[in-house]
Amino acid sequence: MSQVPWCDGRDGMYGWIWRHLPGNAWVRALISIMLIVAVVYGLFQYVFPWAEPLLPFNDVTVDNQ
Q1: Phi, psi of 15 (to 5 degrees)
Q2: CA distance 60 to 65
Q3: Which residue pairs, CB below 8 angstroms and at least 24 apart, start in 48-57?
Q4: Among 6, 28, 33, 36, which is disulfide-ready with 21 (CB 3.0 to 4.6 Å)?
Q5: Tens-of-pLDDT digits for all 65 residues of the chain?
Q6: Sign of the alpha-carbon torsion through 16, 17, 19, 20
């Protein structure tokens, strides 16, 4: 039986990451924030510029009349 009533043992990816981070809750929170910042940085520096030419955001259909 689970120790918390709302948790059925399937806490997903974020629970898995939280359980595998070292330290107490404050250290885990700090590491989590650093991981989030690193992922956002990687997305904005590498993934979004690579994908931008492939996306149809500049293909407008409004005429300039």
Answers
A1: -65, -40
A2: 14
A3: none
A4: 28
A5: 456 665 666 778 888 888 899 999 999 999 999 999 999 999 999 999 999 888 887 777 777 76
A6: positive
